[in-house]
Amino acid sequence: MTKDTKNNLLEAAIQVFSKNPGASMMEIAETAGVGRATLYRHFPSRETLIRELTINSYKQTNAAIEPVFSSGLSGSQLLMAFLKAIIPLGDRYYFLLLERSVEDDPEIKANAT
To answer: In this structure, which long-range contacts are made by residues 2-10, counting pairs with CB atoms below 8 Å and at least 24 apart in sequence?
Structure first.
């Protein structure tokens, strides 16, 4: 699995799901400019794709807020820095709030903390 192809597929999925959370895998493949077979080679199911997107969203959120918490800011400065760090990610991954298929996944729970 090439990293570029996988990243392209993940970005296409974010783009598609952000507009239509119920979108099909075919729509994602079309947006990524690949065939369905390529998408399914990387992500054998919609659930697998959602799982990967969820884990990535947690990792990106944790990476974005870590410097805020270690910045030494207090009060309103800390809150503003925190919001600036997470709002773009919230906009990017909002569609995941509708997904319940991965709630009990142990790896996702591990990345949520």
So the answer is: 5/34, 5/38, 5/42, 6/42, 8/32, 8/33, 8/34, 9/34, 9/38, 9/39, 9/42, 9/43, 9/49, 10/49, 10/52, 10/53, 10/56
pTM to 2 decimals? Answer: 0.81
pLDDT tens column, 49-67:
999 999 998 889 889 989 9
Q: Which of 113, 108, 2 is nearest to 56 (CA)?
A: 108
CA 42 vs. chain centroid, Å, equals 16
CA–CA distance, 22 with 95 (Å, rounded to integer): 9
Count of alpha carbons within 13 angstroms of residue 112, beta-carbon side:
10
C-beta of residue 64 within 8 angstroms of C-beta of residue 86: yes
- Contact predicate 77/97, CB 8 Å: no
- DSSP characters over 15-39: HHHHH-TT--HHHHHHHHTS-HHHH
